[in-house]
Structures are given as structure tokens and as C-alpha cells.
Amino acid sequence: MKMTMRWFGEENDQVSLQDIKQIPGVEGVVWSLYDVPVGEEWPLEKIKKVQEQAGSYGLNIDVVESVNVHEDIKLGLPKRDYYIDNYIKTIEKLAQVGVKVICYNFMPVFDWTRTNLFEEMEDGSTALFFKNEKLQDIDPMELVNTISKNSAYTMPGWEPERLKHLADLFEQYKDVTEEDLWENLRYFLEKVIPVAKQHDIKMGIHPDDPPWSVFGLPRIITSKEKLERFLNLVDDPYNGLTLCSGSLGANPDNDVADMVRTFADRIHFAHIRNVKTYENGDFIETSHRTEDGSVDINGIVKAYHDIGFTGYARPDHGRHIWGEECRPGYGLYDRGLGVMYLWGLWDAFERTKGKVNA
Ligand code: DNO
Ligand code: MN
After folding, report:
1. Which of 26, 167, 190, 345 minimizes the number of CB atoms within 10 Å of its CB?
2. What is the top EC class of this enzyme, as a single word (predicted)?
3. Count of domains in the chain?
4. pTM score, two decimals?
């Protein structure tokens, strides 16, 4: 397991490369170019700049999260070929600096969705929260406004210029079914995977978060069966997964440890975090520790250890603790604790490997 940490860039993140370097066992940053509009080709100079910045702290830039997919591709509109061409050119550029994995998602309109970014927990920390009932009767625009008001940062997937066109986007998705989305995903993969393969870059789709439809929009990367269907769209090791335990774990029917064992060699990137789920469909993002939430993090790390996972991993969202002012879900402290919890489990499994009764 190669440990990484997400970093939003020098101008965009209160967490510094120095901070990241000081977390034990972190080898690289998971990055993106946030100022390039979705669908445009990434400029090589900007890519190289990140490489230099991270490199000066001895951190690699092997994993990109995300190269986002333009809505026209998801919608299957005529201009999709133009955007796919740009995507391919970006892959070629990323290959030049040695990128190994590209994480992306295929969620219509929204990336991850929560109803409160700073829900108070009993211990005085705050965390990302999803109130199921609230989402049933809220206008998406209202949620977008609340979310942007409560955050000093622009969050990937919630860029104001994109969301300005929200009404148009909803109109365009009006008649798009799940089956249409599958077909549009296949079209994209059939063009992109051969290029990624040629450049030895593994593609890892991130599951939908939460793993069910929101605001009536179709969502397809939600369960074990759907992941299986996805992998068969283009049955090639370069067409793989970013297996996110927290996104999938928001649905208690999803057994993530079982998915790790089933899809082993198709998992290129592991997002590991916990969530506490409630019967009414609400969930809150707790600390990474198994006992604190509903997801069996211990069992998941054991599964990764058992399959001899050599891919990349990162802690995912953390709580906001110790008074830290940070990007929602992406503070330094709780994610740092997350890294150490994951290493603690991993090292213990390593020590007992092959021993009877371990
Ligand atoms: C949620 C996060 C996501 C992720 C994107 C990837 O679990 O990891 O925000 O970054 O969906 O495209
Ligand atoms: Mn994730």
C-alpha cells in the first residue's frame, strides 16, 4: 500500500506540503489543476509546476484526482468527441510527468452531496453530514447556495460558474435514463482506456456519493453488481476502480471488504474513511476508527492486506477538530490521524502475517 494525501495546491489549501511531508509514511500528493475549466486540455507548464513543488518536498504526483468528465460526455451530446479528445491530450501530458493513476467520476451534475458541511458532533468537532429527509424537499439551487455560503472554499464539483447553469443542466438530464448513462460511459471508456493503457496510466472511477440517485438524477456506480458491470464495459486492467469505502459505505447493504477481495487487481486507488449510517438514510462522516462509525475499516484494511495490495491509498474526508479552520472534510489533523490509524492496522497485520491464530 502506497500512502498519499490529497492536496489542493499552493493557493488553494491551508495544508502545506511541509505538513504533508511530516505525516509518517506519506509518499505522494493526490492533486488536480483546479483552475482549468472542466473539459479543457491541461497545460503542460502547470502540470510541471505541481511536479516541481511536490518534488521539492520529496513527494510524488503519481495520482491525479480528478480529471473531471465534461457533462456533454455524460449526456452523450455531439460535442462529446471534442471533450474526449481533450481528455486524451491531458492523459498524454500526464504521462510525460510519470502519473500512474487518474481518478474521475461519472456523476451527473453534482460530485459528492451533503446537506451540512459543519454538523456539530457531541465532542465539539464538526463533520460532513447528509440528512436524507432534507434532500427530498430541498430545491437543488437552495442547497448549492447554502453550501457555498458556508464554505470559504470552492469545492471540486461545486464550482459556481458550472452551477450557475444548474437549471439548464437539469433540463438536459430530464430524459436521460440510467441505461443512457451506461452507454455514454461505455463510449467514453472505449476511447480513453486504450490511450491510458498505451501510456501505462490506470483509470480508477470513483463511486457515486451517496450511492443512490439525488434530485432525480441517474446514478450508476453504486454497488457491487454495478461495479462488476462497470468493469465488464471494457474488460481491461487499465479500466479500474477508486474504491471509496465512505461513499459506498453510506449504503449499509454495501460490503466494502468483500468488494476489495472480489475486485482486487482492478483497484488502483483506495479511499479509506468511515461513516456512521442511520436507518432513515442519514449519515455523518466520523473519524476513521472502526468503532466510531458503521463501516468495518479494520476488515477493509485486512482485506487489502490479504490481497497484497500495492496500489495507492489515501485517508478520505476527516472531521474538523482542534479548532482547525479548513476546507470542508480536508483538514490536516483528522486526516493525519486517519493515516496513522490505517498504518496501525496495516503494520499489525504485517507483523502477524502467516502466524497461526493471528
Ligand atoms: C469523496 C471524495 C470525492 C472525490 C471525487 C472524485 O469520497 O473522495 O470528492 O474526490 O468524487 O472524482
Ligand atoms: Mn472518496
Report:
1. 167
2. lyase
3. 1
4. 0.94
